[in-house]
Amino acid sequence: MLRPTPWLRATLLATLAVALAAAIIFRRQVHPEWLADVVDDYPAIMPAAFVIVHVAASLLFVPRNFMAVVAGGLFGATWGGVVSLTGAMAGAMTGFWVARWVNADLLRVEDLPRVGPLIVRAERGGWRFVMVTRLLPALPHALVNYVYGLSAISTRDYALGSLLGFVPQTIAFVKLGEAGASAASGAFNTETLAWACALLLASFVIPKLIPRRWQ
Q: Cα 92 vs. chain centroid, distance in angstroms?
């Protein structure tokens, strides 16, 4: 396995920084209409392409729920949900492994004054704690990926908790994206919008129903 030397760490961090700056500078150049045209022109490769873009977005602090809305608008609720969930998991695992590889025990986050106690709770709570953090919409997707990568939590617990936590909001926001796409095309569907709103509300309520001992 390639060892994370200081030069490799610096190179990877610099690449991520440049990519993040480029994403911020050129964020207005990507329009939903352009993406829709690409989907129509290359339908066979677009799901895989979207997953790759989702991974990059996860590394560059693009909100996961925004990507779910885009997936719903481009692919519909069913395939949009599959593509969005696949991209979210791929992005989450990539961020997790990048942080773990770059850190390589260089920093013990458990010893940090404010973050440390939360990391210790996460390591003790395992997949349940990861699931709860994934259900909280206020926590940035990329930041959570990197923080867990710096912790000692197992890859299995991280992956399982992330998958279970992603599902509710993915379904809700994909439905919302589908409803938005229908409205933009003039075929507004009140039933789809109602389902999207109901699922979105449920995704905010679910974290409050989680047993306290899991948090």
A: 6
Q: Find the length of the chain.
A: 215
- Tens of pLDDT, residue by residue, the chain (215 residues): 445 556 555 665 566 565 556 555 555 555 555 555 655 666 677 888 888 888 888 888 888 888 898 888 888 889 999 999 999 999 999 999 888 887 666 666 666 667 677 777 788 888 988 998 888 777 788 888 888 888 888 999 999 999 999 998 898 888 888 877 777 666 655 666 666 666 666 666 666 666 555 55
User: CA 170, CA 159: separation in Å to the nearest integer?
Assistant: 16
Distance CA 72, CA 81 (A): 7
Structure tokens belonging to residue 14: 């610099």
Distance CA 132, CA 136 (A): 7
Measured in whole angstroms, how far is the alpha carbon of residue 72 from the centre of its chain?
A: 15
Query: How far is residue 158 CA from its own chain's centroid?
Result: 13
- Please report, as a single letter, which amino acid is at residue 90: A
Alpha helices in the chain (DSSP H): 6-25, 32-41, 46-59, 64-103, 115-125, 127-135, 141-150, 155-184, 190-209
- Round to whole Å and give the CA distance between 87 and 180: 21
Q: Which amino acid would we find at residue 148?
A: Y
Burial pattern 175-206, b for ≥16 Cβ within 10 A else e, equals bbbbbbbbeeeeeeeeebbebbeebbeebeee
